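Quick one, tokens below. Sequence please?
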């Protein structure tokens, strides 16, 4: 008798990519964004460099025009790889040392009942 295999597997699949030094743009897109070409995604990334929210909004806007009525979702990340990004800012070096965050730089927000922010 054959054993049934589940439709959704729990196997881990991973691939390691070694990135060259410099800026990189990573976008995770749903099927609703299939109308956008890689070249167009590259143009959007270059226009909205270092602003992932703006890139996501533009990708979603253009993808929804290409696939009306279909859900569109995306996540965008901008990364700097290499020597220049290792000590780029004071905050990143403090975090690397493992020290506590500076109290003046910390942002504390509380949400009251009803969803109002204080």
């Amino acid at each position: 008798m054959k054993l049934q295999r589940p439709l959704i597997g729990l196997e881990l699949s991973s691939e390691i990519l070694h990135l060259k030094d410099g800026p990189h743009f990573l976008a995770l897109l749903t099927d609703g964004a299939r109308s956008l070409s890689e070249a167009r995604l590259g143009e959007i990334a270059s226009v909205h460099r270092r602003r992932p929210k703006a890139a996501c909004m533009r990708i979603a806007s253009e993808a929804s025009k290409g696939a009306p009525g279909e859900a569109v979702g995306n996540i965008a990340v901008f990364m700097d790889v290499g020597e220049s990004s290792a000590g780029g800012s004071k905050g990143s070096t403090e975090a690397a040392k493992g020290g506590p965050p500076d109290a003046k730089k910390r942002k504390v927000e509380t949400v009251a009942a009803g969803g109002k922010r204080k």
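The chain has a mean pLDDT of 79. Residues 52-66 form the longest helix (15 residues).
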